[in-house]
Fold this protein.
Amino acid sequence: MANVSTDEAMRRAIALAARGLGTTSPNPVVGCVLLDPSGEVVGEGFHAYTGGPHAEIVALAQAGERAKGGTAVVTLEPCNHTGRTGPCAQALIQAGISRVVVAVSDPNPVASGGAHTLREAGIEVVTGVRAAEAEAGNIAWLTSVRRGWPYVTWKYAATLDGRSAAADNTSMWITSEAARMDVHALRGTVDAVLVGVGTVLADDPRLTARNLRDGSLAIRQPLRVVVDSSGRTPEQARVRDGAAGTWVATADEVGTVDGGRVDLPALLAALDRRGVRSVLLEGGPTLAGAFLAAGLVDRVIGYVAPKLLGAGPAALSGAGVTTIAEIIELDFVDITQVGPDLRFTAVPRKREG
């Protein structure tokens, strides 16, 4: 294999890390590439599942003695603690690695300190290589650990004129099968899917991640969360079918605000205690509006169909905007065509002051 630069190796490590999306939580996704002293790739690895070997350990096992004197290129600072597996910093030291290149420092106080341990052992440590790219690939975990509640993505589907259903409330299907398959793949990358009880009563969704072609369920299912202040979710609702875990979050259990509604920050804190790092908000326009009004949405993913209804429920309502000066501004991160539809990804801009 040809020699590669540390920058190229980090790009590869970031791609490797992405393979763990959806299976490593509550742990981060991590990728590692090992270069021998001449710059040849001698080992690769990524964290594949919770409790499994970390990326560095997989790469070291592949490299064997060829790792000695080489460089470890890692998307996240090597851990410095013993959990289900041993500390990766010590494993790199024992393997004789002479240099470690890191994209992002570990914000978890339990696991951080690996860079210090490596430097104490005489190993050169370089940080910040392709940091923005690595951050983006691990954004849910990093955000959750830094602030103490999950990363929230609001997903919706609408016509080109912003309608989520027709005037008679029929909505199947606004978007194409390709878009719906994309949503199921998205569900497979998050820890929880969240809706309001109104959506359960109106649509009776399953909220599972599955293959739409044959109906088979994905191996890993997100927790299904129903925001239900007064416990109206029927016992026969499909979210209770046992295909995945379900939590009906009532006001009595979570806490209330304004007229008995479920306290959304308290709900997210409770999910964090359950190990949930990422939430996909799929509820109706009212619940989405409440999350946006509270400043709790980190990312918006919209599937927009090239269709017009002219009337019917809007995709969003009650977001706390009463005048143009309060408008919620977004920055596009990605715009991709999925079948005949457009999928856009955007993040809310931070408001001044």
Q: What stands out?
A: The two ends are 53 Å apart (CA to CA).
